[in-house]
Specification:
The chain is an all-alpha fold. It contains five helices and no strands.
Length: 146
């Protein structure tokens, strides 16, 4: 039985590139079972600690004086406005990236399939139109920031 196992696992004709596959399987397991959950947990802990410090700071400012409640409300409004502005800036960048990817796909597919009359180069318009939709929302449809 042992000789059969040695024949199966140590014969180069049978195994081929087993080292590569073992390396890739160990890498995949360590990525999906160890690294990603650990990074997710660390990010969750960071956000929780940040929210705690923010709430504690606002509570202390509100308790400090009669003007503290006004200052705490103004701080919350400024943070809310900043978060909305940050989201809009992200949508602007996302829209521009989508338009760029769509244009690049159109050019690339047009060059690659120049002789084919039924070429799929128009597929590049899909991400481009998604980018246009993001920009239209940001500039024309979203509520003003105040």
């Amino acid at each position: 039985m042992t000789s059969l196992a040695f024949l199966l696992f140590f014969n180069p004709e049978v195994v081929g590139n087993a080292g590569l596959w073992i390396f890739l399987s160990i890498g995949a397991v360590s990525l999906f079972a160890i690294f990603i959950p650990t990074v997710t947990w660390i990010d969750k802990q960071h956000k929780e600690r940040e929210a705690f410090y923010k709430a504690e700071t606002i509570r202390r400012v509100a308790e400090a004086s009669g003007e503290g409640a006004k200052a705490a409300l103004e701080l919350l409004q400024q943070q809310s406005r900043f978060e909305r502005q940050k989201g809009r800036e992200g949508m602007k960048i996302g829209g521009l990236v989508c338009i760029g990817v769509g244009a690049a796909m159109v050019i690339f597919l047009k060059v690659q399939t120049a002789t084919d009359p039924g070429a799929p180069y128009m597929v590049g318009l899909i991400p481009a139109f998604v980018g246009v939709a993001l920009l239209v929302y940001v500039y024309f449809m979203a509520a003003p920031l105040e």
